[in-house]
Amino acid sequence: MKNNIPSVLVTGANGQLGSELKIVAARYPSFNFIFVTRNELAIDDHDAVQKYFAGHDISYCINCAAYTAVDKAESDTANAFLINAEAAGNLAKACKEHQVQFIHISTDYVFDGNSTRPYKETDLTNPLGVYGASKRKGEELALQNDPSAIIIRTSWLYSSFGNNFVKTMLRLMKERETLPAGRQGINVVNDQFGCPTYAADLADAIMKIISSGIKKPGIYHFSNAGITTWYGFATAIKELSNSNCKVNPVTTAGYPTPTKRPGYTAMDTSKIRETFSIAIPQWKESLSNCIGLLK
Fold first, then answer.
1. CATH of domain 7-159+196-226+266-281
2. Helix (H, G, I), strand (E, B), or coil: what is residue 109?
3. Domain extents in the chain
4. How many Å separate Cα 62 from the centre of its chain?
5. How far is it, in rounded angstroms, from Cα 178 to Cα 184?
6. Is the separation of the CB atoms in 159 and 290 below 8 Å?
């Protein structure tokens, strides 16, 4: 029997999304929030997860914990799969056994980027690297172990918390503004298309899903509205922060990385909007809010 005040367990408490959920939580006094880091709950440990769920009265579990070092994952495959796949499976199993609604966060990197239109939830996945493959395995294990799970794929996540593209760009722009003429500028890839997502908007959407009481399991896509490139994203950051730093567009070929990046991962968000009546802001509007906070 669940308590009158439902408890929401949030894993990955100190990450970008976990940190944003701490702020959103204040607007939902009818829920009790439990935020855990790896030290408090090792989600890759099956027995520890089972013991934790048996000892706590939980109604919802939001899994924000993830191995997100895309390039490092290529040489650290075992850890990427342990955290992104096995741990998701552990949580899903415990959620099913204890009648807890499981919400798991996944990624646009489950796609190969060969599409020419925004990806739908029903489109075939074909990850290009270990990170994407580990996240896809996590989706599979989550739904296999708990068919009532909700999986939310998101993309290009940033926040005023943690390490992310926005904060890196702001730092580099500040550093390189002061360099002698001719040495200024940042090179940013202009042939990878996708949707930046403000973690605060995703946190808000997750709580709207929970509080809606609508039980519709499966995979959903969430990102801010609009499509851009990393260069377009960087240019907007420059404009909103009033930086004088030069931003130079480069091709993916001119900026090699250990992992092959998908060229196009824009996602169709109509399913999540229509199912849960969620309005999603434009990416530039949300970026402006985030930069305002960082200032």
1. 3.40.50.720
2. helix
3. 7-159+196-226+266-281
4. 12
5. 8
6. yes
> What Å distances lie between residue 91 and 8, 37, 96, 126, 230, CA to CA?
13, 14, 9, 24, 33
| Per-residue pLDDT tens over the stretch 22-67 | 999 999 999 999 999 999 999 999 999 999 999 999 999 999 999 9
Write phi, then psi, for 108 (nearest 5 degrees): -70, -15
Cβ neighbourhood burial of 122 (10 Å; 0-12, 13-18, 19+): exposed
CB atoms within 10 A of CB 101: 20
Using one digit for the tens of pLDDT, what is the confidence trace for 125-181?
999 999 999 999 999 999 999 999 999 999 999 999 999 999 999 999 999 877 766
Residues forming the active site: 131
228: helix, strand or coil = strand
Q: What is the DSSP letter of 237?
A: H
102 contacts 146 by C-beta, under 8 angstroms: yes
